[in-house]
Design a protein that fits this description.
Blueprint lengths: L2 E3 L2 E3 L6 E5 L6 E6 L3 H19 L3 H17 L1 H12 L3 H24 L3 E4 L7 E7 L2 E5 L7 H13 L2 E5 L6 H12 L7 E3 L4 H9 L5 E5 L2 H12 L4 E5 L5 E4 L5 H13 L11 E5 L3 H13 L2 E2 L8 E2 L5 H16 L3 E2 L18 E4 L6 H4 L6 E7 L2 H9 L3 E2 L1 E5 L3 H8 L6 E4 L14 E2 L2 E2 L4 H6 L2 E7 L1
Parallel strand pairs: 7-8, 7-10, 8-9, 10-11, 12-13, 12-20, 13-18, 14-15, 17-18, 20-21
Antiparallel strand pairs: 1-2, 3-4, 5-6, 6-24, 11-23, 16-17, 19-22
Protein name: aldehyde dehydrogenase (NAD(+))
Family: Belongs to the aldehyde dehydrogenase family.
Keywords: Oxidoreductase
Length: about 475
């Protein structure tokens, strides 16, 4: 595999090798040499040289290209699903959701850019005219993680292109296959040279990209620890940054909630993608009056989860995507043993495949708020539960976290749910809902969950700079 720079596939000049593993079978899928800093320089230069032309295209032209991207993704849908299934490990059904949502994202920004107000005249005093004008921030570095290929990149690539920016894109070095295929599709439709550049690099390439003098903005999705490093480096040259980082999201089960519905939302919110979601509702808060009945239903539901198989009707979970993350989750399970946490689930009722980075879903109840499992992002299939006495305590427990990405409220009263939602320090809140994320909504977190917002108009605005012309 090679880098894609200035509309051509270029052999890397780096030296480090990455081996790509299928997490379901532990078989080698591919290997490649990572990009060097010289490769990064070439990609940034290509983007910089293409910027004047691309930034001056009419919105309708950019919309046309975004629709062409959506069209070619649609025509290669099955190939992309299979690549995501093999490289990331998620089920084909979940890979299908990612591909379909990425297509929706490109279509959304194709529609939005045609009607977006890049320039407008505001109310003015007599004899004074104020024109507010928004222009692309410039060359942007887009860095994405391994848990949701194609869709996390679509959330960045689509609005950046719509805004008129040129891109240097560095996907996860561990799950690059869907993104390499995406780039092949761009090449297939003769996407304008230099506007989109792909770098297959590791941390060294990413650090150089973030620090590069000709990069005006960095959009990073990943761990809070790395996000802090990105922000520190970007500060040296006052680069614009968008950071979508970690989470430890709560789900509140109120006393009047439909228990069957609450269990369904809790299980999917925690164990979808094997818990490898920054938005995973890994802190469950249930009203003490219904806790016993709720836990009984939750136990039955979790014990019925099928691991590693492709089932249509039953809830299934795939493997942990990387060996490193597999080991990290097991470290937290060892901590649970040391802390003598109370397990709700009979793990002997859940079967594991013989091969692959599979982990059984775990549920712990009455978890102390001081426990590392309660406070730290695990990024795996581990759910921690506590009870609460009243609404005030539920809100206090939900907000008692250094993260604030997402939250879910299960309640019999939508009005009550809305009132609680206003008091939660979370960027995206669902009420009686699965974790659906519409391209026209908003994504981003409070506190250590990040900085800035993606999706919707906020997404395109994050790739624009505004000035005002006074006449």
């Amino acid at each position: 595999m090679n880098n894609y720079i200035n509309g051509k596939w270029k052999s890397t000049t780096g030296k480090s090798q990455v081996v790509i593993i299928n997490p379901r079978t532990e078989e080698v899928l591919d290997s490649y040499i990572t990009a060097s800093v010289e490769d990064v320089d070439a990609a940034v230069m290509a983007a910089h040289q293409a910027l004047t032309s691309w930034s001056n295209t009419e919105p309708d032209e950019r919309a046309s290209w975004l629709n062409k991207i959506a069209d070619v993704l649609e025509s290669s849908r099955e190939v992309l699903i299979e690549l995501s299934h093999a490289n990331n490990g998620k089920s084909r059904n979940q890979a299908k959701v990612d591909v379909d949502n990425s297509i929706k994202c490109y279509r959304y920004y194709a529609d939005l850019v045609k009607k977006f107000a890049f320039s407008k005249i505001t109310d003015c005093e007599d004899g004074v005219e104020l024109t507010h004008h928004q222009s692309p921030v410039g060359v942007v570095a887009l860095i994405t993680p391994w848990n949701f290929p194609l869709i996390t990149s679509a959330w960045k690539i689509a609005p950046a292109l719509a805004a008129g920016c040129c891109i240097v894109f560095k996907p996860s070095e561990l799950v690059p296959l869907p993104e390499v295929e995406f780039t092949k599709l761009l090449d297939q439709i003769n996407f304008p040279a230099g506007v989109f550049n792909l770098i297959l690099g590791d941390a060294v390439a990413a650090q150089h990209l973030v620090a590069h003098k000709d990069v005006q903005k960095v959009s990073f999705t990943g761990s809070t620890e790395i996000g802090i490093q990105v922000m520190q480096e970007a500060a040296n040259s006052v680069k614009r940054v968008t950071l979508e980082l970690g989470g430890k999201s709560p789900i509140l089960i109120m006393a009047d909630a439909d228990l069957d519905d609450a269990v369904e939302k809790a299980v999917s919110g925690m164990f979808y993608n094997c818990g490898q979601m920054c938005s995973a509702t890994s802190r469950l808060l249930v009203h003490e009056s219904i806790a016993e009945s709720f836990y009984e239903k939750l136990k039955k539901s979790v014990e019925s989860i099928i691991i590693g198989q492709e089932q249509v009707d039953d809830f299934t979970i795939g493997p942990i995507t990387t060996k490193k993350q597999f080991n990290k989750v097991h470290e937290y399970l060892e901590i649970a043993q040391q802390e003598q946490l109370n397990s709700l689930v009979d793990l002997t009722k859940i079967s594991l495949p013989e091969q692959g980075f599979f982990i059984k879903p775990h549920v712990f109840v009455d978890v102390p708020t001081t426990s590392r499992l309660w406070r730290e992002e695990i990024f795996g299939p581990v759910l921690c539960c506590r009870t609460f006495k009243n609404e005030e305590e539920a809100i206090a427990l939900a907000n008692d976290s250094e993260f604030g990405l997402a939250a879910t409220i299960m309640t019999g009263s939508v009005l009550q749910g809305k009132q609680i939602a206003k008091r939660l320090r979370s960027g995206h809140i669902w009420i009686n809902s699965f974790q659906m994320i519409q391209p026209g909504s908003l994504w981003g977190g409070f506190k250590k969950s990040g900085l800035g917002r993606e999706l919707g108009e906020s997404g395109i605005r994050s790739y624009l700079e505004e000035n005002v012309i006074t006449i």
